[in-house]
Amino acid sequence: MLNWRIISKIMGSLLWLEASLLLLCMLLSVFYHEDDTVSFLWTIVITTLAGIGCHAYGREARNSMSRKDAYFLVSATWIVFSFFGMLPFYIGGYIPDFTNAYFETISGFTTTGATIIDDVEVLPHGILFWRTMTQWIGGLGIVFFTIALLPSLVGGGGNIKVFSAEATGPIKTKLHPRISTTSHAIWMVYIILTVACMGFYYVGGMSVFDSVNYAMTTTATGGFATHNSSTEFFNSPFIELSGAFFCFLSGINFTLLYLAVSKMKIKEFFKNTELRFYLFVICAATAIVMYYLMTYNNYSLWTAFRYGIFQVVSFLTSTGLFSDDAARWPHVTWIVLGICMYIGGCAGSTAGGNKCLRIVIVIKTIFNEFRQILHPNAVLPVRVNDTIISHAARNRLMAFMMLYFVLFLVAATYFTAIGVDVINSITLCLSCLSNVGPTLGTEIGPTMSWGELPMTCKWFCSVLMLVGRLEIFTVLILFTPEFWKNN
Predict the structure, then answer these.
(1) Which pTM value belongs to this model?
(2) Dihedrals φ, ψ of 93, to 5°?
(3) pLDDT per residue as tens digits for the range 65-101
């Protein structure tokens, strides 16, 4: 059985952390003398009381956690955080509908960036900052963030189990035997990237408030913006190229970035197979998009490069910021961007999607099978970066890809059945499962909100976002009979 008391105790601490983050936003609202102060105050009180209740129930908990506890805790944390995180929107009347408020919040925490708000510019500063904060915290993981702050929160080896349940990618890499030390190093990289991005945006002409918000959503590869027209609002090549650069960096494995900078392993950095594939996809996709923009939209070489590379990197890393309306681009570019949505960034980054590492392993496995047919008695291991990928890891990868495909088919069929056009149905599924945010099509294009979708569709999308962010198994395992057995 699940250790409900330890789960409740940890959940209480997590809710106190969320209340602290909400307090920062309330202080911002006080600074700007805006009317969202009351909604934040009520949310902080409710969240704190809930945290006290959870902590009180788990006060006598034994400080040990099983693998089942870890998987349940991670899934429950994202759901509960989204519930309390939506309260400022709902209580303040900024998003008066419960479904829409929850959709907006879970879209933030999962860094999907899909929004139901048609006009974000009317929102007060505190609400806008909380909206961005949800993405920044969700970028590397809610529980992972907590482990960095409170390394002793989960005892009995629970930190490692939680890390395995929430980390992205088929291979979980650690920098140090202590997972708390690893989380500190990765968060250091994350913070440095955010601050550097903030500086670039400020130099490019953004205000302090905009530069902070756009930097947080860029490095989290989230996509929420403080302006309705996203990055296009500034009409600045410098800002767009800076954004593309930091989206690109945020899509690289943070462990690889840390080793390259702190340990000066530059040679190993550029020899990394996943990074090379990541670079290849960006270059190839940008070249194709540029060709069609110049040929059919009569863009100049510079304009095609400026918009092409920004949108390719934004879609590939699942950021979802936009500098041009891709709905007006040739339809073949939609296919290219759709493929980028599917592939995603590197494992161990803030990017969504399937991850480049999985695609690399699949390609190597396919070519290995061809060689095995010709040489049936040969032992041909699959290697990535001099690491042999075990059969168990490959089986898990294939199961992941199949589950992704099944979920995609079921969701696309459902969206089409309720009246969404086929192109939007396909890109809605890709957007949710890959945590990208924008879609491609005419009914709900990359510059439009998702507010017109039916209520049931929004709940379905919310589930898909969570499943995509936690990489399918962490969520779906809760629905297996084996999980709830006593053994």
Answers:
(1) 0.91
(2) 80, 10
(3) 788 888 898 899 999 999 999 999 999 999 999 999 9
